[in-house]
Automatic annotation (TrEMBL):
It is a multi-pass membrane protein. It comes from Paramagnetospirillum caucaseum. This is ABC-type branched-chain amino acid transport system protein. GO terms for cellular component: plasma membrane. Keywords: Cell membrane, Membrane, Transmembrane, Transmembrane helix. The keyword Transmembrane helix applies. The keyword Cell membrane applies. It holds the Pfam family BPD_transp_2.
């Protein structure tokens, strides 16, 4: 029976991947931009999910790592012409180092739950203020990346090219993040994280190194999120501290995972689809009726409904509906 569930899951995954891979053949630039937003949201949600969903460490400041990756990749490219993939390594290293500082302060002093979340917010806000006054990265005026010349061929190494090129890049990143998340869950560390998430004291009593394993979750999550920041910088071509490090970005980053299902593999993907579709619809509706804030109000209502009606998220319910109960994720 379990083999049947595995086969059905593989068919669904391959079918979804095939549809996404062929999407540029039928979609224009606008629709591809929407799909890029969905995939980026899913990727960032998976990155946050490693720390919160798998290991149970609540972060409200993940925009910090998005911003560090974006500025590291963008600033090195603007000032020195460094390829973004090299800049991404620097950004991931910086983000992991900052994550290590936050984790060490929080876990050594037993700062947990909402207090740990407040610690992550404090670091994100401090970094926002710092970058807002740092001239080398443009300060509050912003950092602007030179766009690719018109009609120039796609350059994957420099991430300068068409919407289609960016689409395939983020599709590859999201697929890799899904595979990597699944691999983590299937290994010993994945079981350690779940034990810590469910009962940290019991995990410690069983001999699990709680501090070390929580730190690994923070480092992996920070580095993955940072890579998403690099992509965001080169796709948008501009960076402002007020937006890249904003609390709104942190909330939007994790909202898809909460709606889709925290701790699941498909949850961040499903939540990204729902949120992006809802966001586009409500943006158009708000512009049509001339009322600001419709999108934010609807997000709040949607979150409340999910927490009340489907506290585990939409994916566990959909998984049951599709008769995939044999697959725990």
């Amino acid at each position: 029976m379990s083999a049947l569930f595995q086969d059905r899951r593989a068919v669904l995954l391959l079918g979804l991947l095939a549809i996404l891979a062929l999407a540029p053949l039928a979609a224009g630039d606008y629709l591809l931009s929407i799909l890029i937003t969905v995939l980026l949201q899913a990727y960032l949600g998976m990155s946050w999910n490693v720390m919160m969903g798998f290991a149970g460490q609540f972060s409200l400041g993940h925009a910090l790592y998005v911003g560090l990756g974006a500025y590291a990749g963008g600033a090195l490219f603007v000032h020195y012409g460094t390829p973004p993939w090299i800049g991404a390594i620097a950004g991931m290293a910086v983000s992991a180092a900052v994550g290590a500082v936050i984790g060490t302060l929080g876990f050594r002093f037993k700062v947990m739950g909402v207090y740990f979340a407040l610690l992550t917010i404090a670091f994100a806000e401090f970094t926002r203020v710092l970058f807002d006054h740092w001239g080398w990265v443009g300060a509050s005026s912003g950092l602007f990346l030179p766009p690719a010349p018109n009609n120039s061929p796609d350059n994957l190494w420099l991430l300068r090219g068409s919407t289609t090129m960016f689409y395939y890049v983020i599709l590859g990143m999201t697929a890799a993040a899904f595979w990597f998340s699944r691999a983590l869950l299937m290994r010993r560390i994945g079981y350690y994280w779940q034990a810590i998430r469910e009962d940290q004291d019991a995990a410690d009593a069983l001999g699990i190194d709680v501090f070390r394993n929580k730190m690994i979750a923070v480092l992996i999550s920070a580095a993955m999120t940072s890579l998403g920041g690099v992509f965001l910088a080169f796709f948008n071509n501009n960076l402002y501290p007020e937006s890249i490090f904003s609390m709104h970005r942190s909330i939007e980053l994790m909202l898809g995972t909460i709606i889709g299902g925290i701790g699941t593999l498909f949850g961040p993907i499903l939540g990204a689809v729902v949120l992006t579709a809802l966001g586009e619809l409500l943006t158009e509706l708000g512009a049509h009726i001339g009322i600001d804030g419709v999108k934010q109000i609807a997000y709040g209502i949607c979150l409340m409904l999910i927490l009340v009606l489907k506290p585990g998220g939409l994916w566990p319910w959909l998984r049951k509906l599709l008769r995939l109960e044999g697959d725990g994720r």
